[in-house]
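TEACHING EXERCISE
Course module: macromolecular assemblies
Task: Read the component lines below, then compare them to the predicted structure of the full complex.
Student: A.B.
Group: 4
Components provided:
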Amino acid sequence: MTVDVPKSFQDIILRLQTYWSSKGCAVLQPYDMEVGAGTFHPATTLRCLGSRPWSAAYVQPSRRPTDGRYGENPNRLQHYYQYQVLIKPSPPDLQEIYLGSLEAIGIDMDLHDIRFVEDDWESPTLGAWGLGWEVWCDGMEVSQFTYFQQVGGHDCHPVSGELTYGLERLAMYVLGIDHVMDMPFNNPQTPIPLSYGDIFLQTEQEYARWNFDVVNTTMLLRHFEDAENECKSILDQEHLDPKTGRKIIMAHPAYDQCIKASHLFNLLDARGIISVTERQAYIGRVRALAKKCADAFVLTQAGGTPQ
Amino acid sequence: MSDLLIELFSEEIPARMQLKAAEDLKKLITNGLVEAGLTYSGAAAFSTPRRLVLTVQGLLDESPTVCEERKGPRVDASEKALEGFLRSTGLDRKALEIRNDKKGQVYFATVQTPGRLAAVIIAELLEKSVRSFPWPKSMRWGVGSLRWVRPLHTIICLLSDEAGAQVVPLEIDGITASDHTSGHRFMAPKPFLVTGFEDYAAKLKRNYVILQPAERSEMILQEAENQAFACGHELVSDPSLLAEVSGLVEWPVVLMGSIESEFLDLPPEVLRTSMKEHQKFFSLRNVKTGRIERFITVANRETADQGDTILKGNQKVLSARLSDAKFFWENDLRVAKADGMATWLAMLADVTFHNKLGSEAARIKRLVSLSQDLAPFAKADPALAKEAALVVKADLASEMVYEFPELQGLMGRYYSQASGLADDIAQACEMHYAPLGPSDAVPDAPVSIAVALADKIDKLTAFWAIDEKPTGSKDPYALRRAALGVIRLVLENELALPLLTAFSKAYPGADTENLLGFLHDRLKVFLRDQDIRHDIIDAAVAMEGSDDLMLVTRRARALATCLKTADGENLLQGFKRANNIVMQAEQKDGVEYSYGADIKFAETDEERALFAALETNEPVIKKAIQAQDFTLAMESLASLRPSVDGFFDAVQVNTDKQVVRRNRLNLLSRMRSVCLAVADLSRIEG
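Instructor-supplied answer key:
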């Protein structure tokens, strides 16, 4: 079998978009906030709750301040892209559909060793867990495959199947690149070829310095409190909007604040000023917000409650 | 007679759960069969990443009819009682028999439970087993409510005999049992039909699935050893990794690769740990250089390019992983060399050890003080022990240990060496966590011993002080292991360490007597494995100096040896007899028979012989005990046996002559005291 090999990072992204679109997913756009992983997108965290079917795929820029390496490490970045798929209820042939996506991006199934290795997913900040695997291609983790069991403290019923691809790592593998910064972002044959480094080397350096040494921690702590308070206050509002006379539960705006709090915590963590004990306490505070948002979401139309 | 084949085919089962799951399946089904009256001649269970398989041979085709006689109400009992009995037996009145019983005439019923077909029993049993399967963690999927370890796809449930094979009609949450399965996920995904276990196993092999985990392990091991040998390397043995890897593949293909030269200077433990934890690679050691220079990876398939692409991919991942490890290693070395790990120690002030017990830095402070106090008992230089205690935890703040917590201590050794500390200190860094279990090596260097003891005694006293003792199966802080560590450190280094003194210098506020009792309990568990009974340890613990575990153990060992001899055993019986007689007499007379007996009141030769024996042996025993030579003390004690036996054979303690009786009681009391000076023999059972 000859496989049509992609030529650039964006080629791989486009192929994934096309593939999952062909499998019936709504191809969404990234969420416009700083998140640590694609799971935080409300299209996953909130939409996996409740009884209504859902099927979505999207790219999500993800920020992990502690992983910053000033662009020097061949595959560790504080800002990278995840590709995320969520299908509810999980179809019985999700593994096969998933393997099809690897073929779509140019992985020849006859030459590679694909393995499903136990890796149970747990997000203490989201109060969520699921069972599944990390998918290995020749010993490299190319995706995370999870059947969501509980999110925001709510049992998932039906169960969603979630797929997360670490795009840079996967693309480097497919394109045969050793250092992420050397990876062609667009087609290298175009008049203006751009590498991943052309686009992100400088930002990796800037953010690494800011994350590790410069960010104002007093401000971060204050913003954390603000986000926490705002989240609670949004959810404390009456469901009935006095202006429109409609029932409007503001699950999404509240959840935005939860996302903010989570990212602020990550920034504080990268600064190394959070002790082990405090760490647990902060995670617990974010989890409490996520739970409240989940509680609110399941009362909404999208959450499966007829209004 | 039929054979049964069950296959539960699912998405990938975690490697660590497969073997137990296969055993559980066998247990659930075979126990259920026997309970239902279906006997069989043999059964075996197997697992692969995607299947649990059970084969049962020589199974009865149906369960035997069971006749049961049941006793009903009396003939003159109320009509209601009789109706109830008829309902419960399903019989009518004519079928009942009237018999004479002690209480009069009584109805008896003979209830026949007809046998059931094997297929019916199996269908019920398998459904029940699937629904209640003891997975450590299970999940739901799709819209269903069935729980399994990962989504369950197909079920084979097949009964076969000479006449052919029949699918057992069965449906669980939409999955209908069949006689079809599929082979290897990639190499032979097409479903195929099977007619029985032999056919199944053979067809699986043709479809690139090795059913037996042991066979897969053996294939991997042999091929790995061969490939290693062919290039002058040897496989670093790792049975737990082997078991895991054989649970990750249905068709193992062993591939060997090399570690890039820029990583060969990393500590071998780092190479091994990184390769094992992240990639499940085996390490290969170059026989000539003694270094780990190659690796083995096990793929799950054959390819047209002989695994070339797979190996290249794995090699690349390894390089990325090792460049991470190298990054940590070099950063850590810089810190260690720059300020002798002071940076890390400062960081540990922010790391909580336990929220009621303060930071790691606070713990280090305690360890420094306690290590100094314990140093003399370990024959260590207190100044050196202090210096060691100060740095043994420093590596907890290093990047390498953050990434690989299991390298704690070991990295401490490397970093101490890099920062120019004495070898004794570097060694203490590595060894102070030891021993971590009953078979782990125990430190034998004085400084390491002192800090290792301090580490454990601090932990024990601290958690005792905040009342976080282990209860039942719960021991989240591994305090039983810490106690065993203290025991092994003391015994294997033959330390005379008064634990109560040590506890008093450690974390304040612990109930030290209670903690000592905990250590005695652990000592019993430890010595039980060396064939020393708990009551023998009780007899030793009851003596003075019981916080010196070496003393307790020496005494217990000597006593155990002594009691294995005929003299020892008989002397024990003699002691018990004497003890009973004296106790009863003391109770009856209301006096204590502890005055010295006088030989002049002795009437018989046997009494005089016992006098003489005590006279000879008492000073020997006393001296031996002072010298802690319990073997000699026990031997000397056992040598009393003939005279004690002789005494009891010939002498009647109770006599009308009060003087003689009192003297005999005092003599026995003296004999008892001599025994009790060696160990509290009254605690010995039997």
